[in-house]
């Protein structure tokens, strides 16, 4: 064997048990009690948890946005991922008018391949159907391993917004080829109306970012998207869902048996819209904005009852000087926050505190993302799967600070947040990439994950 992790508490989505894990050729070869095996490397994990690596299915690395580019590229973003126990990262190449899907993806693949420190996959953002001809390329994209697409109901001036007609065409084509459609759901017209009014009234602080897109702005779009997904019985994955009414609509549709999947993010679980009243409120500006306490409570309830399928980060950091562009006008703040290194430690800390179980944390951050997005070799400590493994010390106290993160940004909304327990090692396909606070991986080691299509239904 190449690696033997002994006596840890192995956690899957459904059970926890003490066992040894043997790794050979990057795969989990055996799981059992007191395995009588020789190995090149033996790790004693007694008193520790042994978990599948997290899969962060929502990141924006080196993303052109808001007049700049997000502050983490593929190297620093995946380095930070490794140090937070994330072993697979999903990024979003953005198709532009006149461009094809595969050429868009291959351009990003070329950038990412030499830099990636963990494994990676791509959802492709669709912004323009090229008079319909782009739809003919969906099957080829799926054959290439791109089995999910993404639409935005907002960001008109960035050229990313699609109308309902385009969205429904994507939804239908994705269904036909065994892919799934991701959606950023907010209502652009109401946002524009609010912004126009606030700016006219001189209301320009970050608080008005929240007030221009409050709960109902997101809820309407969630419900509209769910309506189309139900009407055409097409799979729909709502990204970064942050409001109570939307999560309740999704829960009802799921109960009826529709393939509606819900993602939320740690920032919506930890903070409330009150942060936008702070002096540094602009640093928390992301879309959808962080909502009120009632929504946060509803999201935690939805995590516990299974309505939320995935917790992912929406990692899209900007430097302080870029956030400062919006000091006197919230519409000039680049949207997005850091989080890739905090996702798993945060959710596992909540498990350690007893708010959720460790099994639930594993399901939300690893097993469900792999299942929903067709990463068949990943997401679980199971014989035959990739040896993407995190060893977690439940007794290590950790206070998040920009100084102990491994990204390229200069501030974090997570500054000062205290965690109970922290990852001590991360392995990607059996290779150690993070060790007790230090990145020990190699740029270029990460591999493109060709994903499986969904089983086509009806
Ligand atoms: O504010 C955010 N979330 N920025 C990144 C783009 C997006 O909407 O996901
Ligand atoms: Zn978004
Ligand atoms: Zn996003
Ligand atoms: Zn503690």
Automatic annotation (TrEMBL):
Pfam families: Amidohydro_1 (PF01979). This is Dihydropyrimidinase. SUPFAM superfamilies: Composite domain of metallo-dependent hydrolases, Metallo-dependent hydrolases. CDD domains: D-HYD. Residues 49-433 form the Amidohydrolase-related domain. Its cofactor is Zn(2+). InterPro entries: Amidohydro-rel, Hydantoinase/dihydroPyrase, Metal-dep_hydrolase_composite, Metal_Hydrolase, Metallo-dep_Hydrolases_sf. Belongs to the metallo-dependent hydrolases superfamily. Hydantoinase/dihydropyrimidinase family. PANTHER family: COLLAPSIN RESPONSE MEDIATOR PROTEIN, HYDRANTOINASE/DIHYDROPYRIMIDINASE FAMILY MEMBER. Gene3D superfamilies: Metal-dependent hydrolases, Urease, subunit C, domain 1. GO terms for cellular component: cytoplasm. Keywords: Hydrolase, Metal-binding. The modification N6-carboxylysine is found at residue 150. Carbamylation allows a single lysine to coordinate two divalent metal cations. It is an enzyme of class 3 (hydrolase). GO terms for molecular function: dihydropyrimidinase activity; metal ion binding. Its EC number is 3.5.2.2.
């Amino acid at each position: 064997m190449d690696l033997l992790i002994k006596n840890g508490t192995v956690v899957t989505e459904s059970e926890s048990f003490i066992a040894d894990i043997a790794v050979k050729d990057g795969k989990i070869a055996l799981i059992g009690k007191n395995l009588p095996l020789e190995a090149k490397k033996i790790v004693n994990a007694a008193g520790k948890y042994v978990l599948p690596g997290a899969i962060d299915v929502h990141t924006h690395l080196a993303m052109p946005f808001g007049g700049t580019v997000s502050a983490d590229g593929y190297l620093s973003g995946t380095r930070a991922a490794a140090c937070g126990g994330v072993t697979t990262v999903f990024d979003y190449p953005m198709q532009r008018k006149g461009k094809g899907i595969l050429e868009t993806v291959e351009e990003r693949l070329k950038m990412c391949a030499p830099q990636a420190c963990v494994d990676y996959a791509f959802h492709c953002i669709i912004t323009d159907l090229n008079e319909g001809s782009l739809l003919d390329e969906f099957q080829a994209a799926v054959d290439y391993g791109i089995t999910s697409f993404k639409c935005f109901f907002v960001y008109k001036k960035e050229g990313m917004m699609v109308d309902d007609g385009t969205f429904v065409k994507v939804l239908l084509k994705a269904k036909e080829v065994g892919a799934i459609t991701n959606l950023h759901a907010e209502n652009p017209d109401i946002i524009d109306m609010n912004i126009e009014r606030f700016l006219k009234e001189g209301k320009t602080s970050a608080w008005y970012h929240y007030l221009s897109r409050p709960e109902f702005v997101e809820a309407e779009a969630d419900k509209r998207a769910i309506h189309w997904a139900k009407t055409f019985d097409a799979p729909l994955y709502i990204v970064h869902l942050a409001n109570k009414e939307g999560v309740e609509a999704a829960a009802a549709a799921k109960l009826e048996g529709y393939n509606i999947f819900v993602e939320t993010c740690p920032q919506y679980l930890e903070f409330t819209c009150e942060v936008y009243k702070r002096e540094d409120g602009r640093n928390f500006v992301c879309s959808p904005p962080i909502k009120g306490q009632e929504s946060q409570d509803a999201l935690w309830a939805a995590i516990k009852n299974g309505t939320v399928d995935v917790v992912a980060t929406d990692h899209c950091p900007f430097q302080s000087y870029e956030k400062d562009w919006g000091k006197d006008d919230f519409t000039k703040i680049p949207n997005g926050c850091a989080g890739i290194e905090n996702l798993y430690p945060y959710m596992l800390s909540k498990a350690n505190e007893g708010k959720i179980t460790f099994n639930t944390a594993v399901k939300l951050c690893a097993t469900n993302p792999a299942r929903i997005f067709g990463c068949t070799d990943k997401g679980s400590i199971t014989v035959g799967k990739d040896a993407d493994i995190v060893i977690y010390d439940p007794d290590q106290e950790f206070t998040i600070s920009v100084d102990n993160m491994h990204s390229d940004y200069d501030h974090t909304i997570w500054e000062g947040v205290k965690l109970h327990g922290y990852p001590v090692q991360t392995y990607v396909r059996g290779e150690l990439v993070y060790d007790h606070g230090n990145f020990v991986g190699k740029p270029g080691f990460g591999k493109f994950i060709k994903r499986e299509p969904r089983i086509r239904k009806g």
